[in-house]
Write the C-alpha cells for this entry.
Amino acid sequence: MNKRLVYSLALLLSMVAFAPSCGDSDPCKDVECGNGTCFEGDCVCDVGYAKDASGQCTLKFTGQYAVAEDCSNSAPSSYTITLTEGASGNEVNITNFWGLFKNVVKASVDGNTITIARQEPDNDEFFVQGSGSMSQEGNQIVITLTYTVSDESGPTPVNDVCTNSRFVKI
C-alpha cells in the first residue's frame, strides 16, 4: 500500500474518532440563569447574586436585616428592614427604610454596589438618596449605607445624614 494512502486513512480515522457526534446538544440550550452565565448546563452567578431553589441567579442579599445607625438629626436607632427583589434583576425594594417610611424605597444594584436614587417614597415631602455596598463578613451578609433623608415640607429643608448605617442579615 502506498504511504500516502495509509497516512490519509489514519488522518480520516482520527478525525472521525474525535469529531462530535450529531446527537450531542448544547447543555446550556434551555438553561435560564437570570443574572449569571450558563457553563456546562449549570448557572454561574454574577457578583452579588446566588442560585435560588430553582437554580436561577437572584440577589443574594434579599431577606430581613437588623439595622443599627446613628444619624445627624435623629437619635441612634435600631429597627428591622426587609429587602425583596424588584421588578428588574438589578433592583431591590426596601421596606421600613429609616424605620419610618411606610412605602418601599427602591435601590439599584450593580454587583456589590447599591444606589438609592433620589425619591419621595411616601409622597410627604420627605426625600431619600444614598449609596453603599454589600459584603460578606464571616457567614453574615452586611450592607453599609450612607444616605440622606430630607424634610422639604418647610421653607428650609432639614437633612438627616446617616453614615455607615449597618444592615446585618438576620
